[in-house]
Amino acid sequence: MADLVLRHVDVVHPATARVERDRRITLRDGRIAALEADDTAGLDDAEFDGTGLFALPGLIDCHVHVNAMTADLGSIVDESPAYVAARASQILRGMLERGFTTVRDVGGADFGLAAAVDEGIFAGPRIFFCGKALSQTGGHGDGRPRGRDMHDPAYTRPVLGRIADGVAGVRAAARDEIRRGAHHLKVMISGGCASPTDRIDSLQFSDEELRAIVDEAARAGLYCAGHAYTAAAVNRGLALGFRSIEHGNLLDETSIELFLAHDAFYVPTLITYVAQVEAGAELDIAADQLAKVDQVLDGGLRALELADRAGVKIAFGTDLLGAMHRRQCDEFRLRAKVQRPEAVLRGATTIAAELLRRDDLGVFAPGAVGDVVLARGNPLADVELLADPGRAIAAVVKDGRLVA
Q1: DSSP 8-state secondary structure symbol assigned to residue 348
Q2: CATH 3.20.20.140: does it fit domain 59-328?
Q3: pLDDT by residue (tens digit) across 330-382?
Q4: Distance between CA atoms of residues 203 and 193, nearest Å
Q5: pLDDT tens digit string along 186-217?
Q6: Average pLDDT for residues 234-252, to the nearest whole number?
Q7: Which of 67, 135, 204, 389 could form a disulfide linkage to 108, CB 3.0–4.6 angstroms apart?
Q8: How far is CA 86 from the centre of its chain?
Q9: CATH number of 4-58+362-402
Q10: Which residue ranges does the record assign to the Amidohydrolase-related domain (predicted)?
């Protein structure tokens, strides 16, 4: 692979909220080979003129569902896996064009989709996947309506979750996802908005079941991400060893204490609730699903403010479905209502990379992965500019190659 050299760029370092002016970035074999002051020498034909552009590390979204081609998650079970994969390829391409070079899928994506991206079959961000999220019967990952008894356990069904009950059952399910290459395990520890038969405030799985899942993950060198809304669910997950809590709209001050005590990560997903409310009628989102969205919508910014003020590690996440994926970058605008620009940017770079246990992502340093977003403005001064990627993003580099 030929070197790619980015000339005369202003380099943004999210960790230190610092900008280095007029720099030359040399990318070789998919990595950053050098970061140095530029000079007055003219550009070679193979060099990229970044004059006036700000270089950011590739962005990371820590809560996506790339298989969620529709907001009607229950209908995906009846689709062809090949068709869902084709639709997922479009979703992945859109994410890459918006500057996201890495995503953490928390239900649905598998080793096949990740390999398709890694091998260049699909253009998209690299995928850290869990396979299927673990749910109890009647939990957030059980998509059956009340009138259906049969559950199709075929793993090839392109659904976001799988059902497991009892300590033996959850251990077997966890081990199976690990066998299939999971980077983490996703567990439904409370009710959710998109599931048809549970309440937001329900507590799911027994303590013994959750401990078993956490134990299986730890012994495989992995971690658990927990879907939770209420303080009771959030606190339970943190106390039982979950590394990250997803959503958490209804957490409280007691939850903050536990985040800090356990050095855990918080992954809010604000834009999904706004998008569902605004597009509900257009996308035929069920009335009962929208009613549950209303229960958690207003709490999101308050929860984010509590966590940010206390210094909790907050990673960027969006959780969008179907046509709403195009609003991925609106999360920047929502977070900017509470967080300072550098905090928002760290959530989508350095903190997200720490959650993924990848210190070679989200930073500019020799040896780091060669992911770069070239922006027409400094997000440390105004992070909301990233909410309009069509205007803000001039180019995207992934693994040392221009891809958008």
Answers
A1: T
A2: yes
A3: 999 999 999 999 999 999 999 999 999 999 999 999 999 999 999 999 999 99
A4: 14
A5: 999 998 887 787 888 899 999 999 999 999 99
A6: 97
A7: 67
A8: 20
A9: 2.30.40.10
A10: 55-403
